[in-house]
Write a structure and sequence with these properties.
The protein contains nine helices and no strands. It has a single domain, classed as UraD-like. α4 packs antiparallel against α5. It is mainly alpha-helical. Helices cover 58% and strands 0% of the residues. It is globular and about 45 Å long.
């Protein structure tokens, strides 16, 4: 039997927990704005696993519109310290690979991820927004292979940008929007 996910920590957009996948009403931003601070932070941590980022985004509520929330999210992500970035990277998980993925693909993904993690000391992150799910595996493998040639500082900058993009996509998913 083929495993449903690859062990390791390559990150893409994981599924949100069932209870927050779809907001209870069509006013996701309004509910987010009025939620208790600890609940807002808990929800934000499903988008980016950085306490500093989630606190900063939550404390600037209410947001007049989704665009303002996304701008605040981006700004907070750009300002992550190296320790905050390490915390966010440590919280990332592997994407679920499409049903029927061959075991050779899992082996290739494991080997590529192991090489990446050995070089950089953290999980590989990449934002697959806009990709056909069937293209995710190839995109992730190509991304790992291409980024293995980066020096650690260059890769830290790229990983931070990918985390920012992941957070943005996850916020849109959380609030029930398809984008701006």
């Amino acid at each position: 039997m083929t495993p449903t996910h690859l062990p390791g920590r390559v990150a893409a957009i994981p599924a949100l927990p069932e209870q927050i996948r779809t907001p209870p009403s069509t006013n996701g931003l309004g509910e987010f704005n009025t939620a208790p601070a600890d609940e807002a932070q808990r929800l934000l941590l499903t988008c980016l696993r950085s306490l500093c980022w989630s606190h900063r985004v939550a404390e600037h509520r209410p947001y007049p519109d989704l665009e303002s929330l996304l701008a605040a999210s981006d700004e907070a992500a750009y300002d992550l310290s190296p320790a905050d970035l390490a915390e966010a990277l440590a919280g990332e998980t592997l994407p679920t690979l499409p049903e029927g993925t061959y075991s050779a693909a899992y082996t290739a993904m494991s080997a590529a991820h192991a090489a990446y993690e050995a070089k950089f000391g953290h999980a590989f992150v990449i934002c697959p927004d806009g990709l056909n799910p069937a293209e995710t595996l190839d995109h992730v493998l190509a991304g790992i292979r291409a980024r293995l040639s980066n020096d650690p500082e260059e890769e830290r900058v790229i990983a931070a940008e990918e985390l920012r993009r992941l957070a943005r996509g996850r916020l849109l998913q959380l609030l029930g929007s398809t984008g701006l």
